[in-house]
Design a protein that fits this description.
The chain is built from 13 helices and ten strands. It is of the alpha/beta class.
């Protein structure tokens, strides 16, 4: 029997809310996790009334809790909808303000940043929203530091995602921040979704029609992921792909929105995190098997990416005292795990795992 979670996530649904983002929240935070042996979150849906008309009248939502359920939220997901110029419900805005005042974490997907900003909680803070509404958002909320070209922004207790699909990116980021990289990877495998696309990646990636059919980075990324413990360099990657380093850099920027070195470093940090989570205490072994080289470099990279030292990361996400250590090299990933449709993982160096509760510097462009 799975162990219940004490962390309550509540999604507020309002008139004309987008059903896709609602479904993303349910998939990440609401489904039972028997494969993990415990539940990650206690999830609830709530709305202002007994009948809520969803976007464009596609369907009407019934049978969910009233807004009083939001008063018990540890994490509150605010409503989002396509008609961004229409004012939000005063009752919903009051719920969002009270949640923030008592210390709840706020999440906004797609146009959810409008809801948080309308509640007056984003002034002087960083946020993301869909690129289609960037100009409108800036005009209405000039005191908010909008980052229009990123997938999501983690500003500590307020996190915002730019578009519909990036709701999954932000949701997995929250799971990683709360439960570590290993659990987030398990959730992503069940979703058949990229285990990690960092918030700093661009919202939309240029994809010109290729002149030749073999420019996909997929085969190269798969080859590298099997050899992360080796002292690979960008020059080695370019040689493997039979291109110049400049061409490789351009393809990484075009297909993944990051650089070869940033992606390689991020992959190695992810391996190091999973080794620590599985109980490996010898830093020199973690550094060697992840390709980070030395314990000193491991400490520096881990602190930069997660805000935690190896010992602090182990205390938070490693096995409990007396718990059996899980073996595994953590280098070869399961088929499809963490790979988007293009065949890559898109984990740049600024993309850490297991962020501390205070959040990290997410959404900063590469």
């Amino acid at each position: 029997m799975a162990q219940e979670s004490s962390h309550r996530v509540v999604l507020v649904v309002d008139e004309n809310s987008n059903p896709f983002e609602m479904s993303c929240a349910i998939e990440v935070f609401g489904l039972p996790r028997p494969e993990l042996g415990r539940e990650l979150y206690d999830f609830r849906l709530c709305a202002a009334g007994p009948l809520t008309r969803m976007r464009d009248g596609f369907f009407t939502l019934t049978g969910v809790a009233g807004l009083e359920a939001a008063e018990e939220a540890d994490t509150l997901i605010v409503p989002n909808r396509p008609d961004t110029e229409a004012p939000r419900s005063a009752r919903v805005l009051d719920v969002v303000r009270r949640a923030h005042a008592r210390g709840a974490r706020l999440l906004g997907f797609c146009s959810g940043a409008f809801t948080i900003a309308e509640a007056g909680l984003l002034d002087g803070r960083r946020a993301a929203c869909h690129w289609m509404w960037a100009d409108s958002f800036r005009a209405r909320f000039p005191a908010v530091h909008l980052e229009p070209d990123v997938l999501f922004v983690d500003d500590g207790d307020i996190l915002t995602a730019s578009g519909s699909a990036s709701a999954l990116d932000l949701g997995l980021h929250v799971v990683r921040r709360d439960h570590g990289a290993e659990i987030a990877n398990a959730v992503s495998r069940r979703l058949v979704f990229a285990a990690h696309r960092d918030g700093g990646q661009r919202q939309f990636v240029e994809r010109p029609v290729p002149d030749v059919p073999d420019e996909s980075l997929g085969p190269l990324l798969a080859w590298v992921q099997e050899r992360l413990g080796e002292p690979l360099t960008v020059a080695d990657l370019a040689a493997r792909a039979a291109v110049s380093p400049a061409t490789l850099h351009r393809r990484f920027r075009t297909q993944l929105g990051t650089t070869p070195l940033a992606w390689l470093t991020g992959e190695r940090v992810a391996v190091a995190c999973r080794l620590i989570e599985r109980g490996e205490e010898r830093l020199d072994v973690v550094a060697e098997r992840s390709g980070l080289g030395t314990a000193a470099n491991l400490r520096a990279r881990l602190r930069r990416e997660t805000g935690l030292s190896p010992s602090a990361y182990r205390r938070r996400f490693g096995p409990a005292p007396g718990e059996a250590v899980t073996p595994g090299p953590c280098v070869r990933k399961e088929p499809g795990a963490g790979l988007p449709a293009s065949g890559g993982t898109g984990l740049p160096a600024s993309g850490g795992t297991g962020l501390p509760a205070s959040g990290g510097r997410r959404g900063i462009g590469l």
